[in-house]
Amino acid sequence: MASQLSNIINKTNLNSTDPLLHPSDTALLEAFIPGYSFISRFLISYLHIDLSLYLPYILTYVAIAAVLKYSVSHLSSVLKDHCVATAEIRLDDEISNYLLYWMGQQPFANKSTSFLAATRFSEYSRYYDSDDEDEWGEEDEFDDEGNIIMNFDDYWAKAKNRDKFKRLRFTPAVGTHYFWFRGNLLAFVRAKDESKMSSRFGSQLMTERLYLSCFGRDPTVLKDVLAEAQKAYVARDGNSTVIYRGQRSPGDYVDWTRCMARAPRPLSTVILDQTQKDSFLDDIKEYLHPRTRRWYSNRGIPYRRGYLLHGPPGTGKTSLCFAVAGMMGLPLYLLNLSSKTFGEDDLMSLFQELPRRCIVLLEDIDCAGITQKRANDSSTTDGNKEDSPEESDDSKKGISLSGLLNVIDGVAASEGRILVMTTNHPEKLDAALLRPGRVDLSIEFGYAASTDIHELFSAIYSTLEGDLRSPRAKRIKEAQVAAKVPWHRYSHSEIADLADRFTARVPEGELTAAEIQGYLLNYKRNPEGAIDGVQEWVESVRVKRGVVKSDSS
């Protein structure tokens, strides 16, 4: 067929004086070029143009175009394989948030005519993390002329409008985007991956692939971009405590998901005996020191540390853990052992993904359904109980006690992390969970003593350092003092006297810090009112607990 087409072209060139082709030749061209006969007759009849005269040029152009297309495609493939360095960024990894956040800050992205607008950096960002300097709307406390708004209704009319709008994130859209970084031309590629779909909130979402490329075989510049993106993302958190939670991801696997970044809580605001606070903090500092790690390693001891915080609800167990995490600058990892969606393999995977230095918090471990007491084993002759608990049929769902013990200090258990467990009922915990190596230090939280009550009252009504964290907040404070706002009309000495009066009316060893704080928050502008009504409130608490009977009974 190809030779016949070549003959036709040659005959067309040779018989230029008689360009009309033989009918058999026309039929052959019709087979190669559908519609050739009709187009040829139309051009001759109306435009007096014989298409056969231009056929060699057309075919030559098509052949050249095909060769060029193949050559360019092949050359592009060769250059990509041998002359371009490329980094692929997984969208389900936190590094994708680093890169997309950094890209959104670059001048080329702000000037781009093709961008993606959203309230999240990617579909895997499950929380809204504002990077606004004025996250809580301090600017709403000022009117258009810069005067402080003292009336709440005027402030709220401005603030509620602002809260309706989430911050929009603008990132490069799907496609290839070129930009310069430290004198190097880079390409950022954002491509849809139609082969994979992710399910989220009951709907199907298209996944993406992210790539960074540069010319040359040295990928150093790509690593520098990713490192700078990570620094910019982490710098946004400042000294905030980053909190992660173990969750099941859209891809049906478990992973630690960043859920929030909170301002650190001062350790002084945790109501606990100072000796116990110092003991807890000093023990963590000693554990984190490099010499301790070497000491453990040289003696073949697993480098792990566990703590048990126990006491009545509302006594500050979780607060202490959060405050220490903020003070030490450690990330906090929360895990709900009560969830039936986690299996023992999932729990092992989560612990293996922990960083070397972090705090893992297991709250209310006595409520997780894994703390059954072990049955007495009459077959043991040495009088020692086995570490494996007796499991019921229900323990097959979720995480069993034996599975938790293996994760905490099994052969494959992770090292370097700090494990903190809290419970309201330590007597319900199995002895296997409390042995040294799993729980190395136990701290008991009790009801508030007189010194705790005095400290809590003073903290509520005094002006703390965090109240003046910015010049704008300081201006607000000065305006409130000038206007004699109730909670700023007392001096330090007056607050101390009021705290003495309040402490004298509250029995120590009966109430939790959370209960006292909750009561004081009802009088946050009226410390004298809190003092006047505290005895009646104490009696009502006693009645609820059944300590005393009410008059009606």
Automatic annotation (TrEMBL):
It is a single-pass membrane protein. It is found in: Mitochondrion inner membrane. SUPFAM superfamilies: P-loop containing nucleoside triphosphate hydrolases. Keywords: ATP-binding, Hydrolase, Membrane, Mitochondrion, Mitochondrion inner membrane, Nucleotide-binding, Transmembrane, Transmembrane helix. Residues 303-449 form the AAA+ ATPase domain. It holds the Pfam family AAA. Residues 374-398 are annotated as: Disordered. It comes from the Eukaryota. The keyword Disulfide bond does not apply. Residues 57-270 form the BCS1 N-terminal domain. PROSITE patterns: AAA. GO terms for cellular component: mitochondrial inner membrane. It catalyses: ATP + H2O = ADP + phosphate + H(+). GO terms for molecular function: ATP binding; ATP hydrolysis activity. This is BCS1 N terminal-domain-containing protein.
